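Cont'd.
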Amino acid sequence: MRNDGRNQKEMRPVTIKTDYLKHPEGSVLISVGDTKVICTASIDDRVPPFMRGQGKGWITAEYSMLPRATQQRNIRESTKGKVTGRTMEIQRLIGRALRAVVDLDKVGEKTIWIDCDVIQADGGTRTASITGAFVAMTLAFEKLLKEERMKEMPITDYLAATSVGMHREHGAILDLNYEEDSTAEVDMNIIMTGQGKFVELQGTGEEATFSKQELDELISLGESGIKHLIEAQKQVLQSL
Amino acid sequence: MRNDGRNQKEMRPVTIKTDYLKHPEGSVLISVGDTKVICTASIDDRVPPFMRGQGKGWITAEYSMLPRATQQRNIRESTKGKVTGRTMEIQRLIGRALRAVVDLDKVGEKTIWIDCDVIQADGGTRTASITGAFVAMTLAFEKLLKEERMKEMPITDYLAATSVGMHREHGAILDLNYEEDSTAEVDMNIIMTGQGKFVELQGTGEEATFSKQELDELISLGESGIKHLIEAQKQVLQSL
Amino acid sequence: MRNDGRNQKEMRPVTIKTDYLKHPEGSVLISVGDTKVICTASIDDRVPPFMRGQGKGWITAEYSMLPRATQQRNIRESTKGKVTGRTMEIQRLIGRALRAVVDLDKVGEKTIWIDCDVIQADGGTRTASITGAFVAMTLAFEKLLKEERMKEMPITDYLAATSVGMHREHGAILDLNYEEDSTAEVDMNIIMTGQGKFVELQGTGEEATFSKQELDELISLGESGIKHLIEAQKQVLQSL
Amino acid sequence: MRNDGRNQKEMRPVTIKTDYLKHPEGSVLISVGDTKVICTASIDDRVPPFMRGQGKGWITAEYSMLPRATQQRNIRESTKGKVTGRTMEIQRLIGRALRAVVDLDKVGEKTIWIDCDVIQADGGTRTASITGAFVAMTLAFEKLLKEERMKEMPITDYLAATSVGMHREHGAILDLNYEEDSTAEVDMNIIMTGQGKFVELQGTGEEATFSKQELDELISLGESGIKHLIEAQKQVLQSL
Amino acid sequence: MRNDGRNQKEMRPVTIKTDYLKHPEGSVLISVGDTKVICTASIDDRVPPFMRGQGKGWITAEYSMLPRATQQRNIRESTKGKVTGRTMEIQRLIGRALRAVVDLDKVGEKTIWIDCDVIQADGGTRTASITGAFVAMTLAFEKLLKEERMKEMPITDYLAATSVGMHREHGAILDLNYEEDSTAEVDMNIIMTGQGKFVELQGTGEEATFSKQELDELISLGESGIKHLIEAQKQVLQSL
Amino acid sequence: MRNDGRNQKEMRPVTIKTDYLKHPEGSVLISVGDTKVICTASIDDRVPPFMRGQGKGWITAEYSMLPRATQQRNIRESTKGKVTGRTMEIQRLIGRALRAVVDLDKVGEKTIWIDCDVIQADGGTRTASITGAFVAMTLAFEKLLKEERMKEMPITDYLAATSVGMHREHGAILDLNYEEDSTAEVDMNIIMTGQGKFVELQGTGEEATFSKQELDELISLGESGIKHLIEAQKQVLQSL
């Protein structure tokens, strides 16, 4: 039994509240246990300079935490005057993952801005961000379709993300909370599609290493979590 | 009749949801119409260098908006690498206002960090922030009292803020929404205590001017709004 | 009697030296007691991006202090790499105030850059800046008229600013010097036109509050100061 | 046959020139094909604030490219005034990887600064940096041992990194050059120890996805590359 | 005859107004023709970290221009968020030059902050800054002696600076104004002591070169200018 | 005898390795004793905004050191977020010097980017950079001529730089190493052409002064060093 009563293969409760804010084209509040993230998708009718004139769209993501999303208050990145390496890594990951399931040619010369703002953190903020951002993006595309600003749904598959880890006490565990994330020896983020293909796989030994057999065990556990998350997405999305 | 159906002297519906987040010592989600702000109060057992050794506390505030709190997406200040003048002005205002109703000697050498994060904006974000921050701060002090980390409640009075304005069409109006804020000729923010004393008064003619008589009319309207807000605060706070 | 021998309702000596520098279109050295500010107005034949194509002008202001304008040397903002919140607040205030007495349509697509550089500070630097900047701006417009780069004088009224405060010992006082500014319980900046209309009113209780009656007393004292300052402006300006 | 004449399972020629610079405690020039990186290890007898008093060491890495290491000249990060997300990601990766094969308790309160400066780039700069940095770090530790500033060699295993990818034309390929890196559909960086354990695994579908079977194929190819690299390291290092 | 009526060997009129500001320990307004610089010297009873514990003093300088000191308005360095290369070069030059005529051991652990703020520029701002800063620094040291915060005058000699140049039309000329500075082929700044020794010599061919004979001619002209400036300094300083 | 066995008038061994990197249009690795600098020249078919439409070229330089080029590791300027004053001074010097021997009209609207990256430092890095950059730039121009992207060689003369100094123990010495540079009382950088004309002369008394006679002695010593360096350049360059 884990510190919050779950067994090794159990995810925390997931809820996805759609249309959470009134201004963005798409928005959700996703909760995975005590981790809560507001994900919004905003449509901009321009693309960045390096994309102009190609008739293709672009998807870019930003990620941030409220200062007191965490147990200790963090200094705002706006106050520091710079974005940390961790934030940049997460932002690049979210954008890259979403682009893998979108046919950018069908989007046309538009930028989809994804904003993931963590209002409460308890581990797995980056994977919750990806899972929620996929829904916010889909809602935005649905709106564009309804308004006839786009001809075809450009999304090619579902997309969700979860974390798995190798824990000294519990072995391979699914969906790590903050406490577990801090103590796991191996930490892996898995992003997969509805068809069960990998989009991204990032496994890290935290001052530790792992074998091929452990890798296979973690991947298999991750796959089961992804299926569960995509079920939750399907319940709030009709059009795909 | 105003664009949202209110009369000139009417505020928008106000709700204050306490203990909104699990980590901060005090937190609320305040809604004033469609304006929604998460206000948190965090306790730090140190004071800034210029305050050390005086045995007094300090209160400081930060304010931010989610990029898509507004109709058009705003660039994050962390991305720009600097905090705008508008944000700094609001942060200084919130901190100054709260300090006016707190006996800092009773706080002891602690810093109260106030964070106001606007998740949806429809005018009056700075006044909603002050009104909500007062409640979050009070909750944090109650927690310190309960944990015996503080001897006496240091708050000396209630505190709330609202906006009033002079509108070409409607004359003097209370609690401006975004639409009204953009078109008002005179815009005034009023911060008052439960005893009806002024803490701060900021009246600005936007490419316009105003007379003493108009000033008096606006102030009187503001007072009625403040009373209403303090009623709402009293409903969620018991200890004061 | 105040610390510099004045009575409560007395301003410090005011001098405005016009055409202080040779390059700017308009320039003054204004002294209010020991507070000395160089104010210049520069004409730029472009407007900022958000104003282009409207045929209107724009007025923007910058404010700074020499590092040793004050008793203790201050670190330069260029060295810090950022402009402080206080400076931004003052810059925004100066620009907003000047725009209230200028018909920007008559200016045409030009930017008036106002620079207020405090070379010696003894309280009231922002109000002296506004009072001096109004004269520098007027001189610049006169030059444009003389050179036929503008058809009509766009200034609609005189504009001056002063401070008033509520002092524990002296009660309501006019034109606070540095010593008084540090100890006043209520501090108010008043910006008014030649016609006696308010452009901006900013009253702040410094860890204190104030009543409506005190507000009225302060405003009335401020009005008398503004009249005095506008007299001084009229002596150096002929054209208005 | 690949564009540089190699077969799918072939690495580019690897050379590691030790003691390349005279000042650093450890330094190498590593070449992997046309990719050339200067890796240095510097010993600092302090640890960062968050590590003080624990008696443990720390390893941190920085990565940079000469502006003309690439086909097009890049703007220096010092000129931009900020480090890009890509650089931060690589720096964090190098430091994390090296820490996985060092017993930090044996290092004592010292920081090992790793600097990887790419002087010529042709794909695989981050993996070459890790492979070279491991040697530079080992040389630095050997120097500390010789000077009796350390009691025991803290390195627990060899460490090397390589890239593998899934290429439309060639299928699974080892050690991608720049041309291949730009066109590969799946790109994976693998960091492994001398014992064949994983330290880090990062697989990314570039606007593409990959199956478990493809993952297994890539991993197996990566393992063979790592073995080859560790052979090259063993030839220049005696003490391990 | 030069564009302002001078002959080749003639300086512009020089005036040095002492005790120009009330707060700094030493201050002057120096005018060299239309170039006007406020120079102040501030005493700080600490030294920078790299000097601590040596019992020696330090002298450091900052230089800036008001935005409209020049014909075209310049963007403030505080607004840009960074100090330009030109400013840094001048700051380093001023500090280095002053340190050459001060016995830092006699200063004790104090920092002398020199601030040179150009309020009007017409060529030669850096040399006027040095000449004025020497006087401001001397006044500050005199004040320290009078207040018995220092035992002996640490200044070892007078110090002044001027510019000379090689001009296509006029040949070798002394004390270049802005117009001449822009068109000179060779530009040289000379800093010398009262004893006629060089402290710094910087000669630059602006897309041109110069011979040893031209160098000797320029140096000789510079020496005569320095003598004149030191005369002006002697008239306002008694103690040396 | 100097600390490295040289006599006063002796330079350290100089080697210039051409075509050191594969991507840049021109590149060298220059060694002057233990000082090693990679100099590259990159051609950009645009000029900076202030040069556009004049049909002329521009030459600009950047200079940097690897963090561990020196005995103590230096913090990267990209990490600090700003370029130091010393770096800016050197960059401006390199660019200015090279422009003095190039007919920019013959270059056409192109920018030559010079990058000087010090990989090992032992004094004289800025003069080695200039000497090496001249060769890299010449190689780049030769390439443009060969590819018929330029009609005529725009270089008007050879260019090299060296340092000389006045040393307490050794008197006037040529080509100072790091040890000597730190202890010299007078430090002078001399940049000259193949024809023996000065391009730049910077002599500084480090908390010391120097006479005209000493200046002449230093210049004469510098001239002999420059001749030696230009010989080395001629051996690797044919076309001039």
